[in-house]
Write a structure and sequence with these properties.
Length: 518
């Protein structure tokens, strides 16, 4: 219970928030679900303040603002910089609101646009986010909500999660209770790990559909450039999109016919011929925009964005055409690590799972480790392809030691995918009880005679359910992120929101009984 004594984590002074007049929440009778959700939000709001994660976030952004100010003053020949109280209070309020509104969005499992509407009409969510003022209520747009979520780096969210769990473990010296007022402090003694696949938000990567994507992206960019007055001689861009769609439909309808292979090759050659014209028109309009963007009403930033969009497709197009040629015309296999799965997201891998309904998935490997109460202790979304589960157990334990002050769990329980002689040796050296499921049937039969092993493996089955909760109720399946960085950040927010949700549902200490006992 004294593993993590409470020490101050903040170097600079945080200004106290001024209490403003808020609207009184209406009393709702006859709806148990609403009242349960209300109690959940109130408890989460209390834990945000008691744990200190809000202070950690504010401290980080204040330090960032000071560093930015110092860099700008050095350019002007000055050596000192100090935030004004008005600037500091503005940063504090923005960070506090961004933290709460992002957690609220994860809890309600809504996208940015519908959540913005729900926040505007829900007095309860406004109260949780502390924007239910008497005079006016400022509701952020969907774009602002997205900026708020992405302004937090992943390492700061991870640090907030660590502080939250430490608060549920460490007791107050005066009262000998954990800081979150839980009836029983949580324990990190038992460690349960598993991995899963976070599916990317892409369509199934069919070779000839990649050519359709390339055509649509280039022609939409060309259409936008021509709309702003820069034109080169060509047919209507819409005609090219109609042509590629027609060829895609013909390719689909060849399935099951006698001469399907021959016909598929003919259609693919027509696609290649069409793509050469599309690429040429895209290149010419890209050069036009680069040299004459001042003649349009586009800003330099928007012009650069359109240029980069065309450049991204043109650089990948030869390889995408070659990939389809190898598979359709040459009838040769292409290795997974050489495939283009998406023209817009390079950090996607083929994940072979072999499960019913998910033999193959396209995305990134996610590792999760939980403790006995279901709280996520450690996680990592892998940008590169992970060779095997057995390779990631060691780094997870070492990451756990670093984040929790050299503390290691007493036992580790995994499925057979994590089992290896190297992991066995590593756990033995760390003094951690090994409850990994062996790969060998003979070894498994021997271990099934141990009561502790059977009990921990039975509990490990709940980790599968925990993964389902994270993916379906918080992260999204597939994840809506359009890049690895977006998916990685969304995963971190999902874990933090999930842990707040789990802790809020644990039994809270009864203050009245404590006073009577005293």
């Amino acid at each position: 219970s004294t593993l993590f004594p409470y020490t101050t984590l903040f170097r600079s002074k945080i200004l106290p928030f001024q209490n403003e007049l808020h609207q009184v929440l209406q009393i709702v009778i006859g709806n148990a679900e609403y009242n349960n959700f209300k109690a959940l939000l109130f408890r989460i709001a209390e834990m945000i303040e008691l744990s200190g994660i809000e202070k950690q976030a504010i401290e980080y952004f204040l330090n960032e603002a000071i560093q930015d100010g110092l860099r700008s003053t050095k350019q002007k020949g000055k050596t000192t910089f100090e935030l004004s109280e008005q600037m500091q209070m503005s940063i504090q309020e923005r960070v506090r609101f961004a933290l709460r509104v992002t957690i609220a969005r994860k809890l309600t499992q809504q996208a940015f646009r519908p959540f913005s509407v729900r926040l505007a009409e829900s007095q309860l969510l406004q109260h949780f986010c502390m924007i239910d003022h008497i005079d006016k209520i400022n509701i952020p747009s969907k774009s602002t909500l997205e900026r708020y979520e992405k302004m937090f780096p992943e390492n700061i969210i991870r640090k907030m999660n660590t502080i939250l769990l430490k608060a549920a473990i460490s007791p107050e010296i005066e009262t000998e209770e954990n800081r979150l007022k839980l009836e029983e402090s949580i324990s990190l003694d038992e460690y349960f790990a598993d991995s899963t696949a976070v599916k990317a938000n892409i369509h199934y990567p069919v070779d000839w559909v990649l050519l359709r994507d390339a055509t649509r992206t280039i022609m939409k960019a060309v259409k936008l450039i021509r709309k702003h007055g820069l034109k080169n001689r060509m047919d209507d861009p819409a005609d090219f999109m109609k042509a590629i769609n027609k060829l895609c439909i013909e390719m689909t309808h060849t399935k099951g016919k006698k001469d399907s292979k021959k016909r598929r090759k003919q259609i693919y050659r027509l696609m290649k011929r069409l793509l050469r014209k599309v690429a040429l028109h895209g290149l010419r309009h890209q050069e036009l925009l680069e040299s004459r963007w001042e003649e349009t009403n586009l800003t330099k930033k928007k012009a650069d964005f359109i240029i980069a969009k065309i450049e991204n497709i043109l650089t990948q197009l030869p390889e995408a055409i070659r990939q389809g040629h190898e598979r359709i015309i040459g009838e040769r296999l292409v290795k997974n690590n050489e495939k283009i799965l998406s023209l817009y997201d390079k950090d996607i891998h083929v994940i072979v799972r072999g499960k019913a309904g998910a033999k193959l998935e396209f995305g990134n490997t996610l590792f999760l480790a939980e403790q006995a109460d279901g709280l996520i202790l450690d996680w990592k979304l892998y940008q590169d392809k992970v060779p095997a589960d057995s390779k990631i157990l060691k780094e997870s334990i070492e990451r756990l030691e670093e984040e929790y002050d050299n503390y290691t769990p007493l036992s580790a329980t995994t499925d057979r995918g994590f089992f290896s002689k190297t992991n066995q040796k590593f756990l033995k050296e760390k003094g951690i009880k090994d409850y990994m499921c062996p790969r060998s049937v003979i070894e498994l039969q021997e271990r099934l005679t141990e009561d502790d092993f059977c009990e921990h493996q039975k509990r490990r089955a709940q980790t599968e359910g925990r993964i389902g909760i994270i993916k379906n109720s918080f992260l999204g399946n597939p994840s809506k992120g359009k890049s690895f960085n977006s998916r990685n950040l969304s995963t971190a927010w999902s874990v933090l929101s999930h842990n707040l949700w789990v802790l809020a549902r644990l039994s809270e200490v009864d203050v009245g009984k404590m006073e009577q006992a005293a």
